[in-house]
Amino acid sequence: MNDFLQFLQSQSGKLVEQTLTHVHLTLLSVALAILAGVPLGILIARKQKLAGMILGFAGILQTIPSIALLGFLIPLLGIGPKPAIFALFLYALLPIIRNTYTGIRGVDATVREAAVAMGMTHGQVLFKAEMPLAMPVILAGIRTAAVINVGVATLAAYIAAGGLGEFIFGGIALNNTNMILAGAIPAALLAILFDFLLSRAQKLSMRHFRWAGAAAVIVFALSAITPAAKGKLLAGFTPEFMGREDGWLGLKRIYHLRIPTVVINDAVMYQALHEEKLDVVSGYSTDGRIRAYNLIILDDDQHIFPPYYAAPVVRKDALERFPELGPALDLLAGRINDSVMTSLNYRVDFLHESPATVASDFLGKQGLLKPQRHGKKGVVRMGSKIFTEQYILCEMYKLLVEGNTELSISSKTGLGGTKICFDALTNDQIDFYPEYTGTGLLVILQQPLTENLRNKDSAYNFVRDQFEQQYGLQWMQPIGFNNAYALMMREAAADQLGIRSITSLTRYLNTQKN
Amino acid sequence: MIEASQLYKAFDGRPAVQGVSFTVPEGGRFMLLGTSGSGKTTTLRMLNRLLDPDNGQVLFHGKDTRSFRPEDLRRQMGYVMQQYGLFPHYTVAENIAIVPKLLRWDTSRIRQRTEALLQKLGLSWEAHAHQYPAQLSGGQQQRVGLARALAADPPVLLMDEPFGALDPVTRARIRQEFNELDEFKSKTVVMVTHDIRDALELGDRIGIMDKGRLIQTGTPEELQQHPANDFVAAFLHGKTDAP
């Protein structure tokens, strides 16, 4: 509890900003949905034939998964508040259209006839009789839409539109409960607040709406004052990167990097960089998209990103039982550098070749591909995490082991994340899987990063020694590439600005300010 | 003042009103009397263009009603409904003020008129003006309905079963009060009813309708003494006087 209060205190500026952004996104999208939805509801209450079609269409919009919808919107509206508000607007439409329709259809026919018979025009019948009488039902729809949107607006953090989702998703990624609560509790309170205010509005009679409307405008105007620093360059970081010492915190502390940042989901981050919505992103240094989108990695000249060199981690008993296994695995040692790994990932992710083809092509060119021996001496159980790079590495190890020894490989690929792979290994469910030094250090050994451990070799030596002592596991020789966090830019933009390293990026930004 | 000639109206190909003609002179009180489904309400609704006839025409002040803007026509014809049709979200005073407001009367004139009407109809400004319809009894609601129809002092009053939803005691009382109202005496009235007592007490001429046709028109005495056929005779003697 104390921790939580301390967290709130230290992050109060961010909390206020995120809450205001959240309110702004919700109110603006609901306001737009009212402007579009109420007239549509009135229209279909008049023209019954359109009702099924329009309600059906709004219903289909409601079923599109939100992250997919946001993805569709990036090419059209970019990133930031625009696509977020548009997506939220679409989600708010259905309850508003449907309740307007139901409310107007529900007005007593006698009252409507009396209004007409007294000589009211169509507009007067609508505004003096139908709308006021349907208003409680319409407001109930607006209430539903507002509460839904407070929840959905957390997803705005996926596309750099801010809001309380930044804390929530950052907290989930960093396993930081205080951070999750700092986003989730205000979001829940906002939902309750909106629900309460609109429930009060439902009880007001029509004449009070002017005042309610004025109050809404004021709240709206206040919420619109969100700090929006727009420098020359804009950085997009994942929620996880934002909260890590070997991430944004370190960039600020070590490099004194000052750049406007937005929080964005890694699924759309590269695309946003490619489409020039962002100028700098945090990514992984061997991602295939680096090649696909012509990105370059800025040199980490002050070494804040710990090394993530990949190597197989093997059970000692397996190495003793099959002495030929170790040398076969080490055949790959030092063979793949960063750009080669990036290319291999690119071929699978973007050219849609199978990991097996890419693996055997590569080994063939390296002269490592040997005919499979179909050996019967024993079975080695191999695991992998679920992403492209690990699949490719595992295909290579299978070919190497089965081509160079009398052993055969049984694959248990797709073991989820680090924790599942590592537990499978220590519980003798698999014999080896490819791991990264940084992950071993920070996730498994939970070792605080010291200056010494930022060095490639000392990090490798450290994890090798600790794994052997603590778990009886053997780290084989590193494969060569380093799949670490990295800052990336579009190559053309970096060339134009003369930026090659993080230090030169900092220098460039400082000159821009003066 | 109102002249209906050869009105014909069908719904889904089934005629509801056929060949109906009648004339109501200024200050006349014409009762359309008939059983349910005889076409009397449809006929009434064609007078203020809530419905337009498929055939035939209605003249108001000698002019075809189709030459009026429907809203202007309706504002000159007060309309009283069986189910009152009061706006539930308006107070009594606001309900009565609807047509004067449409006609852009100024506030003090509306207030004076409303107060006077409430008093004439046995209600009071203090007790009732700020109540909502749901707080009133059926008899009070219908009084407000009458006041609303009379508010802008229209030359014509169209009434559709105005006492139909009231119990017999209230019904007789309101009918009598209404008949004695000076407001009512100066109006040209067309009233639809299935109750022979309404027709005899309030009407100076009665038109008997059956199956969409106007069977006989005449003063109460004429009809009672010379019924055109058995149906009219039976109706006037109350044998088919069932809603």
What does this structure look like?
The complex is a heterodimer of chains A (514) and B (243). With 514 residues, chain A is an alpha/beta fold. Chain A contains 24 helices and ten strands. Chain A folds into three domains: 2-224, Orthogonal Bundle (MetI-like fold); 235-303 and 486-513, Osmoprotection protein (prox), domain 2 (D-Maltodextrin-Binding Protein, domain 2, 3-Layer(aba) Sandwich), CATH 3.40.190.120; 310-483, Dipeptide-binding Protein, domain 3 (Roll). Chain A has a five-stranded mixed sheet with strand order 2-1-3-10-4, with helices on both faces. In chain A, strands 8-5-9 form a three-stranded antiparallel sheet, with helices on both faces. Chain A starts with a helix and ends with a helix. With 243 residues, chain B is α/β, with parallel strands linked by helices. Chain B has helices spanning 40-47, 70-75, 92-96, 98-102, 107-120, 125-128, 138-150, 168-180, 182-185, 196-202, 220-225, 230-236, and strands at 2-11, 14-24, 29-34, 55-60, 63-64, 77-80, 156-160, 188-193, 205-210, 213-218. In chain B, the strands form two sheets. In chain B, strands 6-7-8-3-9-10 form a six-stranded mixed sheet, sandwiched between helices. In chain B, strands 2-1-4-5 form a four-stranded antiparallel sheet, with helices on one face. Chain A binds chain B through residues 108, 110-111, 113-121, 124, 128-129, 132-133, 205-206, and chain B through 48, 50, 70-75, 79, 81, 83-89, 98-99, 102, 148, 158.
